Amino acid sequence: MSLGSIAAGGVRKIAVRSGRKLKKQGPAPAISEERPVHIKNTRDENFTVGFAKRETMPPDVNAKQYWMAGFKSGQLVTGVIDPMTVSAMWIGCGNEGGILMVSADCIGLSRCEVSRVRESLGEFAEKSGCKSINISCTHTHAGIDTLGYWGKTILGPIPGDGKDAEFMEMFLDAIRAVCIEAYQNRREGKLFIGSVHVPEALGGGRQPTVFHDVLTRIRFAPNDGSAETWLLNFAAHPNTMGGDNAEISADYPYYLREEINRVRETNVLFTVGAIASINAGEYCEDRFERTKIQGGVLAKAALSIDNDEPMKPEITVLCQPYYSPVDNGVLSLMGLIKTVNALKFPCDRGDLGLALQTELTYIKIGSRQILLLPGEAKPEVAHGGYAPAETSATGQGAEINPPPLCDIAGDENLLVFGVTNDMTGYIIAPNDFVLHESEPYLSTGRDRNGVRHYHETNSLGYLTAETIADTFSKMMKSLP
């Protein structure tokens, strides 16, 4: 028996004991089925939209020890290429209230941090009529660790907490501030939605490779002629700086925003789609140049959109918490030793008897449906295109997989915002889910076709996609 298999077995035993201990304390609290909230401007066709942005760079970034997030653990930040920022967009319907969409330049935030922000904005939400606060992370692989995964290793491959308490407080304070400022800066105007295909902005990924090459733009045009606000969504990993880079950067979203503003003054927020295993365009060998090119290509595409359609000032929001079984003993151990912030509960499903409470949020603006996912989904989970038995990683057919999320929504154009309101890891189809035979979740496995399956090591487990689909199906049934 190898050292790795012994370690994997030991990690699993610790997780199983943790699950049994939780179960002795009683069952997990029941989660009620939430009801959708609807708001509508019955006075005219205007939305009220506001924008705010702040840099989130610590003043001592070159003097204090910070850990780089996104690739290998224990990599210290050595400098700054461009700054991390947070931006917020208030989208409201007259005097009926509205919602907040935040775009944060970071690898991700746990639901614990998201809940802290929401709780601290409780009074603001009540006074403003804010029905929903949502934090999408751009998932840059060149930012300061905001999840904890990338600190110095303390137990084999298990990292210690890479978060810096002072930086985290400053980062969350900045999110709170832009939420309030965006509401204060609101103006009346029209909201439009348009899209364009940008196939050149996508690079290779593991099979089955389903490229969702649509760049979507939600565009607010204020009646007073001031700067427009754009909410952009595209499904490519912001990891173009590469694993050897140790300098802070927002990756290609920074250069996307800068290039748009070089052409015309515009407030730009960026969100990722279903990005698991999907890289940005591979234009050249030089990583920094590739990052700039990616931003420029997407900026040109966003500026070229000419199929805008007006959106009616109607918003529906449904946020549904749910329990997701945890089969990954390594991630469970990281929660146990406080490397990451997570609330665990006993669970009758899965191998470890553990579950994480997370959430799905559904938003409909006008007639456009948006699903906010707490992780990184492989595109076929969201948009369809599962591998058949002949080519799948497991030899099993697509019939063992849950329906794609767009099918559940009854909408092939369903917009997916990934890494939003939580970061629970990769979301992989069951017939594509392969673990290392003797070192599950600890080492990268290979499937029957010889393809590496790294992503499973950072997934909650085999049941994740199914649980999301089941939860989303129940949510859709509660909608009119």
Protein architecture, described:
The protein is an alpha+beta fold and 480 residues long. The protein is built from ten helices and 25 strands. The mean pLDDT is 95.
Write the layout of secondary structure elements.
Blueprint: H1 3-24, E1 37-40, E2 47-55, E3 68-69, E4 79-80, E5 85-92, E6 98-104, H2 111-120, H3 122-128, E7 130-137, E8 143-144, E9 153-155, E10 158-159, H4 165-184, E11 187-197, E12 214-222, E13 228-234, E14 247-248, H5 252-263, E15 266-272, H6 287-304, E16 309-310, E17 314-326, H7 329-336, E18 344-346, E19 354-365, E20 368-372, E21 376-377, H8 379-383, H9 405-409, E22 415-417, E23 426-427, E24 445-446, E25 452-453, H10 464-477
Parallel strand pairs: 4-14, 6-7, 13-15, 20-22, 21-23
Antiparallel strand pairs: 1-17, 2-5, 2-11, 3-8, 5-6, 9-10, 11-12, 11-16, 12-13, 17-19, 18-19, 19-20, 24-25
Largest sheet: 9 strands, mixed
**Can you count the beta strands?**
25
Number of discrete helical segments? 10
Give the overall shape: globular
Give a summary of the structure in a few sentences.
The chain has 10 helices and 25 strands. The protein is of the alpha+beta class.
Summarize this structure as a short list of keywords or feature phrases.
10 helices, 6-stranded mixed beta sheet, 9-stranded mixed beta sheet, alpha+beta, 480 residues
